[in-house]
Structures are given as structure tokens and as C-alpha cells.
Design goal:
This protein has helices spanning 17-28, 35-48, 56-65, 93-102, 106-111, 113-117, 132-136, 150-163, 170-186, 208-223; strands at 5-10, 31-34, 68-73, 76-81, 84-85, 124-129, 142-147, 199-202. By secondary structure, the chain is of the alpha/beta class. The structure holds 2'-deoxycytidine-5'-monophosphate.
């Protein structure tokens, strides 16, 4: 029996994967996996429990027991940890950097593998992350690598923060983006890189509508829709 369809969307932070994957899932009626949120919640839970972000054994134990769930609502998918809504708490720059740190640890990635694979079900899944097409779903029917220049991603992040009424320092954000890219691309396990059979889309000069149209074209062709 063939496995449920998976559209793997990988790429660096801030390239627009979140918006793209939400639209793809909604258009196709597929479920959605935000794998970055899982690493973010693990880092958040670890901080709350007073664990060091390099304490691999304790982080693995936390990964095995943490009560994480996704709750789709009108205003987006809420992330719950033990019933508490941690959606905003895990979206800060610091939470992203902490997630990237725990995500470097091989045993932590292994401990979270099955949790991610369990999201694959009919009629299909759109999976957002760094290693969806290379490690978690190597047999995904559709693989897209969404890239964008760091400067473009930093400008988009500044606009997002300003729109939310928050202060944003472009220089600092660009520095953080580059540091996180560096960590995600150069780690030993599951480094951020396009799968050999992925289609690379560069969103630096494209708006979300164009990216979505291109991604739908690729998905339709590969899934025979
Ligand atoms: O996509 P995001 O910004 O929410 O991800 C946060 C961090 O989690 C990212 O910097 C690296 C890590 N991550 C990962 O290693 N593998 C994934 N599949 C998703 C995220």
C-alpha cells in the first residue's frame, strides 16, 4: 500500500515556509506539521525545568514525555504544552535560537523522529522544517526547498515585529538570522540542505502569491492532481 502523500517544505528560518505551508494545507485539505514548533517547545520546556540546552540525556527524557499538542483555531494553530497555550512564548527570537541549539543534538533529533512521522495520514501532510525531505520523510512525494537571502528575511522579520507593535533592530536581527543559519546548516546530523530531489525556490524577489502558485504547480504535477 502506498503511503499518504507528503509535501516536504524545508528551508532557513524566515523564508516564508509557515505562510506557504498553511496555504498549501488549506488548499489541499492536508494536515500540517510545524516541526520547528516541536523543537521550540522542547527548548521552552527544558528552560522551564531548569535544564541546560546541551544536556542531551535530560532533553531526550523531556522529549519523550512532553505533552505537546496542536490546536487549530480561527486565528491559527495554537501550540499547547501540558494544556498551557505557549504559542506566543515559543515565537520569540530567543526561543528560535534555543530551539536551534537543542536541535543540534543527535539523540534529541532521534527522540523526536517518530512524533513527527506520526503526523503522516490520509489524505496527506504538508511538513515544514529543515530536514523534512532529507531525514523525516525521505520518501515524500513532493520536496520543496524554500530559500531567501538573509537580508530579505531580516527585513521581513522587522516588518512583522513592527506590525505587531514591537521594536525591531535590523542589524541585530540579521546577525541572529546568520548565526541560526550557520548552526542549522553546519550541524553534524540532519543539517539544513536541499534534498537531492527537491525543487529549490528562492523567495527573495517573490511575493507569497507567486511562491504559493509555483509550489501548487510543483505539488499538482508530482501528486498527479
Ligand atoms: O522553523 P523554526 O524557526 O520554527 O525552527 C526553529 C529551530 O528548530 C531552527 O532554527 C532549527 C530547528 N529545526 C530543526 O532543526 N529541524 C526542523 N525540522 C525544524 C526546526
Amino acid at each position: 500500500m502506498s503511503k499518504a502523500a507528503v509535501i516536504a517544505v524545508d528551508g532557513p528560518g524566515g523564508a516564508g515556509k509557515g505562510e506557504l505551508t498553511r496555504r498549501l494545507a488549506s488548499e489541499l485539505g492536508f494536515s500540517l506539521l510545524d516541526s520547528g514548533a516541536i523543537y521550540r517547545v522542547l527548548a521552552y520546556a527544558a528552560r522551564k525545568a531548569g535544564l541546560a540546552l546541551f544536556d542531551e540525556d535530560s532533553l531526550c527524557q523531556e522529549a519523550a514525555v512532553m505533552d505537546l499538542s496542536f490546536d487549530p483555531r480561527e486565528d491559527g494553530v495554537h501550540v499547547l504544552l501540558g494544556g498551557d497555550d505557549v504559542s506566543s512564548a515559543i515565537r520569540t527570537e530567543e526561543a528560535g535560537a534555543n530551539a536551534s541549539k537543542v536541535a543540534q543534538l543527535p539523540a534529541v533529533r532521534k527522540a523526536l523522529l517518530q512524533r513527527q512521522r506520526d503526523f503522516r495520514k490520509e489524505p496527506g501532510l504538508v511538513a515544514d522544517g529543515r530536514d523534512m525531505g532529507t531525514v523525516v520523510f525521505p520518501d515524500a512525494q513532493v520536496k520543496i526547498f524554500l530559500d531567501a537571502a538573509p537580508e530579505v528575511r531580516a527585513r521581513r522579520r522587522v516588518s512583522q515585529l513592527e506590525a505587531a507593535g514591537k521594536q525591531a533592530d535590523y542589524g541585530l536581527i540579521l546577525k541572529e538570522i546568520k548565526e541560526r543559519d550557520d548552526r542549522d546548516r553546519n550541524r553534524i546530523v540532519a543539517p539544513l540542505k536541499p534534498a537531492a530531489d527537491a525543487v529549490v525556490l528562492d523567495s527573495s524577489d517573490l511575493g507569497i502569491e507567486e511562491v504559493f502558485a509555483k509550489a501548487m504547480e510543483i505539488a499538482r504535477a508530482r501528486l498527479g492532481l
